[in-house]
User: Fold these one by one.
Assistant:
Number 1:
Amino acid sequence: MADKKTFYITTPIYYPSGKLTIGNAYTSVAADSMARYKRSQGYDTFFLTGDDEHGLKIEQKAQEQGIKPQEYVDKMAASYKELWKLLDISYDKFIRTTDKEHVEAVQKIFERLLKQGDIYLGEYTGWYSVEDEEYFTESQLAEVYKDDEGNVIGGKAPSGHEVRLVKEPSYFFRMSKYADRLVEYYKEHPEFILPHSREKEMINNFIKPGLEDLSVTRTTIDWGIPVPSDPKHVVYVWIDALSNYISALGYASDHDELFKKYWPADVHLVGKEIVRFHTIYWPIMLMALDLPLPKQIFGHGWVLMKDGKMSKSKGNAVYPEMIVGRYGLDALRYYLMRAIPFGSDGIFTPEDFVERVNFDLANDLGNLLNRTVSMINQYQQGQVAPVASEQDEFGLDLQKTAAETIADYKAQMDNLHFSQALDSIWKLISRANKYIDETTPWILNKEEKKAELSRVMTNLAESLRLVAILISPIMTQSPVKIFKQLGLDWDNAAQKDLNFGGFGWDIKVTEKPQPIFPRLKNEEEVKYIKEEMKKAKPKKQSRRQQQAQTSDNFITIDDFDKVKIQVGQVLSVEPVKGSSKLLCFQLDFGNGQKRQILSGIRKFYPDESQLLGKKVLAVVNLKPRKMLGMESQGMLLSSEKDGQVKLAIVGDEHELGADLG
Ligand code: MSP
């Protein structure tokens, strides 16, 4: 027997930096729908998802929660897996970039590229925001400051925070070497980047102006994969993240069966903002590794809100748990795949969501099922006869619509046009509803036209059987319910033949009709969703306020004992270059113990020299942390009132190095 055709589909790996919104769920629901569709078409399918666990942001999040990065990412990965379970995401593997196998693969890839000369050691120059802990290129800055000669001397990050120019050693990937080959590849593979408009964007915006070599390591970050031959460096972002698509299959390990079977990927689904990395850096990496390129990168659009991007702080984020909890999973999956044509942006509004659930699901589909099952019960005591070979004009037209829908649905699904595939299915649903009006079964019943009535009932049941099968990659729960109400069994493959009349029926329906999508009260539900969105907005609080709030959760003396506070004397203090916030202190703790501590109090001490010789209090057992490449070995205590911060200065009676407690 010939081997089954394979299909390998991936989602991006998500940053575990917070709760996932319906925007993130969008990519996963789309990938899941495609994976389910391909499985239903007989493909041996592998569906990969996972998370992207390294980097500064993650380190920072862990720090905020007072736990180790590993502990933090373990917790987040578990919560993401829970969410995917709730959303019926049928992935075959969940890769984490801290997985040993992935780390080893990335290290092998890096060393190979280094040895080949595709990666070289240079110096990274870029704009860095301490507050955001993020690097920016000049073009990414929201504002730039120039000197008289027009040279950029500073600026602001998109967050509004000041940036400073940093220079540090970094390894670079020689991208430019592969630019021509890449453009050639695009030309020979017109389906490589979809939608097509995104290919033009890549060529015009990034390749034509000249591909810059990509900085691929950092020396200022700890939480990352170390470069084996130069462990001061950790691999920075993209080589680590992109490699997941092959490391997950065992590439560069001694068990690469999955890699041999599934690579190259059939499609990487990604949001439009990361198309660049997937259509330029990733293919180039693969060319350098002498590996085949993925067959397709599909850059989908964003789920937006009326006021732009979804964000927790704006109070406009919608979380999948809330929608699923109140309206059911299929309402969410249906809405995401129907309301926004895949590839375009779309705006989520509570009004639109409630309207779609009511019109499309409760009215069109729900009523069709309800009326059909009621009539079968009422007029035929639950009996459904086989599909009749002779049909009248309405029956023939219904069959024709079913056949067209099935063909169009396949064509649309094969091209990831989920919304259009659903449009087609809803045409069949409308046609079936119209069929009831045309055939008026209540009159056939009154006039005792039994044969005709039975034929009509079967045609309706058969239409619904097909609808259930067609929606099943996208909606995972309703098809089972529809089958059950029609007296069918979802696990019986013979009942899932995708042709009108492809299943023989002759079945007794025993279920009473039950609405699968209850009608929603419009205003009430719109209000509910809006309130839930507001509730999710975090109140702005300083760290100290947050601490004060938990004051009724007493800490124990053991908790307090963990903090080691000592008296130190300021030997020298100076502003950190390029930072408007930081002062760098050298402190003496007696007995030859010296420490460097950075503190964000610059604006409260315009003349920092007044602090020289002062005795201050410092937490000395905090994990050292790098800021702007400088290590801070502790934290100075200070007080804050009405936005004013003062260092805690103690009198001379306190000895250097004395422990506080
Ligand atoms: N870690 C990188 C991807 C590395 S892949 C090798 C990343 N992670 S992310 O968590 O920021 O984003 C993951 C995906 O979620 C992206 O494809 C992004 O487009 C998608 N979405 C996040 N919010 C979204 C919407 N509001 N709407 C649609 N998708 C959006 O980028």
Note: The chain has four domains: 6-108+239-324, 109-225, 325-522, 552-650.
Number 2:
Amino acid sequence: MVDFNSKKLIIAIDGPAGAGKSTVAARVARKLGYVNLDSGAMYRALALKAIEGDAAFEDEDALVKMAHGSRIRLEPTVSGNRVLLDGRDVSGRIRERDVTEAASKVSVHPAVRAWMVARQREMGLGGGVVMEGRDIGTKVFPDADLKIFLDADPVIREQRRLDQQRIKGAPAESMAAELRERDLRDRTRAASPLVAAEDAMLLDSTHLSEDAVVEQIERLAREKLAAKG
Ligand code: DC
């Protein structure tokens, strides 16, 4: 019997904030008939729970306990993931400034990451997924069929995030500084820092349109699929 699942790829897209991962992952998934999973949304959901439960972002034990008692669900949609925390739709709330800041802080803890990685592996194991994050190609799926490291010039990334936040009416003044601080934390933490996997394809979206990035990844994916037979 033909196992159709074996032909479905696992595609990892990693990179810093503002590089365009979410939109690109959603569009690539749609083109291939795959699901897009936003691993950062899971860290954000836990961060929200920590905020609401008054847990300190430094308290690894408390955070892990919280994670174990949580149900974090990602529902892929054409424009990203709908995120359910213990059955409640928190998709909008987790994009706010306080949660964004907190997510970067709770994600430094190895035990929190271990819990997240285990959940993410369960979600993507069957293939047919485009998972985006910081450590998908290095830790979650080191054997992913296709690994993309999507980057862009920091000034461009800051501008993109600023534009997104402005739409939501958030103050713009310190946004760029906060993004730089989060970037630095994500890249320099001891546990699974943001780095490109050795076998990742590096894509710099600074001078590339979103369409061009999506097309390149789709082309690479189709080549992988053809090679799988
Ligand atoms: O992708 P994002 O900006 O929504 O992620 C929020 C935070 O979660 C980010 O500051 C780093 C962390 N994160 C991570 O450590 N590992 C991932 N795979 C995804 C996100």
Note: The two ends are 15 Å apart (CA to CA).
